[in-house]
Design goal:
- This protein is mostly beta strands.
- The protein has four domains: 8-106, Sandwich (Immunoglobulin-like); 121-426, Coagulation Factor XIII, Chain A, domain 2 (Alpha-Beta Complex), CATH 3.90.260.10; 440-554, Immunoglobulins (Immunoglobulin-like, Sandwich); 558-651, Sandwich (Immunoglobulin-like).
- The chain contains ten helices and 37 strands.
- α5 links the parallel β11 (198-200) and β12 (232-235).
- The longest helix is centred in the middle third of the chain and has 15 residues, at 237-251.
- It starts with 7 loop residues before the first strand and ends with a strand.
- The mean pLDDT is 92.
Length: 652
């Protein structure tokens, strides 16, 4: 009598057990999610007992009281990352494919043989599993941590990241390589080439879209993109970086957002930032193509670099903000931090551009009578220490800023820094700039932070370094400026002749009443700053000295009232209170709140909020995740954006 043919009636992926072992249980997805290089078990329900004579093959493709047997599967540590389908083949003529046959395979930073292996468990917790954090913004004198929900485990995010792998037509074999995946994702997070996730917009107006200032996290952006398959409007650098951190962590690659203050954007690749001003010191946007951003946010990802000589493993810089094309597309990196620090601008990918962001020299050119037909241009100054300051990221395991400047560059003015610059200039320009003697030292005395609605007072301090008296023509321009260095409106201009004795000091006061800048606020619907640029010119001896400073504005706070603790599945309420003490009515005012594991992004519309008005909003939510949960609150309006606060509640 012939033996009954062996058949499979069902497959149990043992999702809960496997995901706990693979540290993937937080993903809100119905499919099994595991990491490569680590075994996982499935149960096969069979129609009879398994016999050693049975030929059973479990195939993985990139895409009544039954009897059971257990099978353990182990993928290679360099397996292709993506969405797989599982089937069971018995003999030559029978294949069983379960109805829900798909599972997702991720990179594995806990596996020693994976190229993204990160040996520090605390670092894995921070750079792979932490779904909240901070992105640092502001200016070098006033740094603020903007709370951000990365949300890599939220519903639909994993599926969207898997779809992104398919969108670019990336060859399956390339998906095993984190270097290739990181470079592709730096292109796909922006929409410039492949109808990717985000459309960039630095115009200050955001038609048919969302202002970059309104986003509180990445998951809402990715979910909107996944639902519509249309690029989401709009993002700026911190939004691009936040989304790229989410995508990388979701795929299992350790990642963090990094902010470079006074960040250079070198459009010509000559390691200099050429800024053109008129005779009043006002920046000329129409001919200034280079720029120094108050801050720029990119990303770092942790991985080995087997494509490079030894010594370049570890953190690599990548950037999804569309600035300049690389190999015909808006993509940037990965570039080893070691190569950036040592000026090895030939090392791939895009090391020269990233090196310039933290090291380029600023050259200021003055244009005489720019409105006339004749355009005489005079080189006014050159500053070798203008960019690449206080490079920042969230500290490991702590809600505070960590300065990582020395991972990108040697100390300013050190012998090592000069050698690096000479090496970089040897491949980029005729030679390293020669420092011009300075006869006057310019500085400022002012508060770096001014409460919005208050007058601004500052002193322009001039110190003579010359052995004879000097007669100087001092010009100053105070301009409202977007964070990317673009001048939006001139608030105040000053011109004054000053005589200063040898080796002495004097000062020139500059007063800006609130009434002179408040009406202009709606022209800067981004991070609000006031840049004051000063030029001091002498005819005998002839020289021009320049300096500038950035003044940031302090906004009234949002008060967040939350219970200290709450219980899973039981509703609780949170209250948000704001009083407008800015000195200007806030039009089209909105409060946006989001809490991962608690509720999705919610918006409260408050219309016009007059000066002195108080408003309160309340949200009731039911926790669906335990642990320490953060709620982010943000207020935007036509005049002021980016007022943020956060609260914390522990869910039992």
């Amino acid at each position: 009598m012939s033996e009954i043919a062996l058949r499979v009636s069902s497959v149990d992926f043992q999702k809960g057990i496997n995901e706990e072992l693979h540290r993937t249980s937080d993903y809100l997805t119905p499919v099994l999610t595991v990491r490569r290089g680590q075994g996982f078990k499935i149960n096969l329900s069979l129609t009879r007992d398994y016999s050693p004579k049975d030929e059973v093959l479990i195939q993985l493709s990139l895409g009544d009281n039954p009897l059971q047997c257990e099978a353990e599967l182990r993928t290679a540590p360099d397996a292709i990352v993506g969405r797989y389908s599982l089937s069971v083949k018995i003999g030559d003529d029978y294949t069983y494919t379960p109805e829900d046959s798909h599972f997702c395979l991720l990179f594995n930073p806990w596996c020693e043989d994976d190229d993204v292996y990160l040996p520090d468990e605390d670092a894995c917790q921070e750079y792979v599993l932490n779904d909240t954090g901070y992105i640092y913004v502001g200016n070098v004198n006033d740094i603020a941590g903007r709370p951000w929900n990365f949300g890599q485990f939220e519903e639909g995010v994993l599926e969207i990241c898997m779809d992104l792998l398919d969108r670019r037509g990336l060859r399956q074999t390339a998906r095993r390589d984190p270097v290739r995946v990181a470079r592709v994702m730096s292109a796909l997070v922006n929409a410039n080439d492949d109808r990717g996730v985000l459309v960039g917009n630095w115009s200050g107006t955001y038609p048919q879209g969302t202002s970059p200032m309104e986003w509180t996290g990445s998951s809402a952006i990715l979910q909107r993109y996944g639902k519509s398959q249309v690029p989401v409007r709009y993002g700026q650098c911190w939004v691009f970086s936040g989304v790229l951190t989410t995508v990388m962590r979701c795929l299992g690659i350790p990642a963090r957002s990094v902010t470079n203050f006074s960040s250079a954007h070198d459009t010509e690749g000559n390691l200099t930032i050429d800024v053109y001003v008129n005779q009043r010191g006002e920046q000329l946007n129409d001919i200034t193509t280079d720029s120094i951003w108050n801050f720029h946010v990119w990303n770092e990802v942790w991985m080995k670099r087997p494509d490079l000589p030894q010594g370049y493993n570890g953190w690599q810089a990548i950037d999804s903000t569309p600035q300049e094309k690389s190999e015909g597309m808006f993509q940037c990196g990965p570039s080893p931090l070691k190569a950036i620090k040592h000026g090895e601008v030939h090392i791939p990918h895009d090391t020269k551009f990233l090196f310039a962001e933290v090291n380029a020299d600023q050259v200021i050119w003055r244009m005489e009578d720019p409105g006339s037909g004749r355009k005489k241009v005079t080189k006014v100054s050159e500053n070798q220490r203008a960019v690449g300051k206080k490079i920042s990221t969230k500290a490991l395991g702590k809600d505070r800023r960590q300065d990582i400047t020395l991972e990108y560059k040697f100390p300013e003015g050190s012998p090592e820094e000069r050698k690096v610059m000479e090496k970089a200039y040897a491949t980029s320009s005729p030679g390293i700039p020669i420092e011009v003697p300075q006869y006057v030292q310019l500085d400022f005395q002012s508060a770096s932070l001014v409460h919005l609605g208050s007058p601004i007072s500052l002193s322009i301090c001039l110190k003579s370094l010359f052995h004879q008296p000097l007669t100087l023509v001092v010009t100053a321009a105070a301009q409202l400026q977007a964070y990317n260095g673009k001048a939006v409106a001139t608030v105040k201009a000053l011109k004054q002749e000053v005589t200063i004795q040898a080796q002495t000091s004097t000062s020139v006061p500059m007063e800006i009443p609130a009434a002179e800048y408040l009406p202009l606020l709606s022209k800067v619907n981004d991070d609000l700053h006031l840049r004051v640029t000063v030029m001091a010119e002498s005819s005998d001896p002839h020289f021009v000295s320049t300096n500038d400073t950035v003044i940031a504005f302090e906004f009234p706070p949002i008060t967040v009232d939350l219970p200290a603790t709450a219980k899973m599945g039981e509703p609780f309420s949170g209250r948000f209170t704001f009083k407008n003490t800015t000195g200007v009515a806030m039009e089209n005012c909105k409060l946006l709140v989001e809490g991962l594991g608690l509720f999705k992004l919610a918006t409260f519309y408050h219309g016009t909020v007059p000066i002195g008005r108080i408003f309160r909003s309340e949200i009731v939510c039911t926790p669906y995740r335990n642990g320490r949960r953060k709620i982010i609150a943000k207020i935007t309006s036509d005049q002021i954006s980016g007022i943020t606060a956060e609260g914390v509640v522990d869910i039992d």
